[in-house]
Each structure stands twice: as C-alpha cells, then as structure tokens.
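Section 3.1 - Work completed
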Amino acid sequence: MNDWPHEIKRIERRQQQRLEVLKRVYQCTEIRGEPGLALSTLKDQLKREGLKYPEKDLEKAICYLEGESLIKMELYHANDPNSQVLYMLHKGIKEMEDIIEFPEGRTEHFSVPVINHFYAQAQVHQGVIHTHGPQKGAGEDA
C-alpha cells in the first residue's frame, strides 16, 4: 500500500501551519510595526478565525520556525511563563518577502502548493514601489 499521498498531505498541512504562524508574526512586526506578537494573542487570533490547531501542532510549528532561525520566542517577563512573545528574525523577513515577491516559486521552507494556499487566504497586500527619482515641485525646472 502506497501511503505517499497521505504523507504529502501531512507535510503540506504542517507547512501551512508554519506559514500561518510566520505570516502573523510578519504582519504584526513588519507591517504594523509592533515589536513582537504575544503567543496568547496569536492563539486568540487563530481561535477567533476558526483555525483550530491542536496545541502540540502549534508548538511544533513554532519550534520548527525557531529551529530554522525564522523567528524567536522569548519571555517578556522573566517571572511569567505565559508572557511568551514571538519576534521576526532577518531570515524570516527574507522568507516572507520572497513569498510575497515570487508567489509562483518555492522557498527554502515552503512548497508551491502551500504558498498558493497562502495566497488564496492572504491578507498581506503587495504594493508597487515607484523609483523614478525625486519629484520636482511646482515651479522647479524639470
């Protein structure tokens, strides 16, 4: 019995969970400019939006992302184990920028089907940056 299709689906599901966490930390820190995303806030967001990840799956996703140096998790208050905060690392920012800029390709950590699924649900908007040099004001020589 060939169980590869089932295994591929399991891998894609895990990648989707990881990308969901990475996306939310990216949105919080890089788009909204907050220093980090509290783990309790992440859990509340997922629950509110009907994305019910088992606690162990969420822990595994965060552990994987930390292990790959995409995010880091630290205690905000040393005496409070419930004050865990997720922070973006440079490699995680680069990974998200690659996903946003090149949605048709795979990245080091995410396959094309997972990225396509991300885009089907994405709330991250791509912008176009125009770099035509400084704009001349009224009355200035063109």
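Second construct:
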Amino acid sequence: MEYVFTTADNQNYIVELPMEFMALSKWLSCELGNDKQKIAALIDELNQLCKNHNNNKKWIGHEYTLVLQNKEVQIYSNLIFSSLSEDEAVRLTEENLSLYDEESFSEAGLEDIIKLLTDYLEFMS
C-alpha cells in the first residue's frame, strides 16, 4: 500500500492514499484525526490481537466502522452499510462497487494497517 503524509499547517495532517483506499483515508481523518494517543492505543490493540491470534474485532466510529477478521481489515461507511444485513454487506463488497461506493468501503491486510498507523504516528511526532 502506497501513501503520502502531508500537513496543511502545523496541526492538520493529511494521509493521501490511492482511490481504492479512500474510505481508509476518510476513516483516519474522521475517526482518528490527529489524536496521537488514540492512534498509539489502536496500534497497541491491533498488535495484541495479532499476537493472541484473536483476529476478530469491530470498532464502530461516528462515521466509519473498522472490522478486523482473520488478519484482514475492512473499513466502511456507517451511512451506506448500516441499513444492510451482514450477508448483504458481504455480497455488496464482493461485487464491483461504483466509484462513489469505493469512497465508502476499503479493505487491506492487518500488517499494512499497522504499518500505516505506525508511520502516520511517526510523521506527526
């Protein structure tokens, strides 16, 4: 996964990701923002889950939800997916999503997410 960190000023950080990771980028901005403690705590929790082989967890945020299942991470918009059953959501994400829908769903490997968050935290320090 490729990404670039930039800063709009000394307090606002931006993560630029490819289009297929747009929901991930929005999740970082909306749910974590520049909160270094929150990011560090999430990194620790993800690492613990990875070590304990307990790879199933869901974090429901204000606008986006992060789901960890079998070392795969899915991030989806609460607005788009909240009205769907779990089976409907799985079917939707397995089908071709429109450009608009790609902004509402992303998936990546757990190790990639941990590396992204770690690099992001280091960039902000």
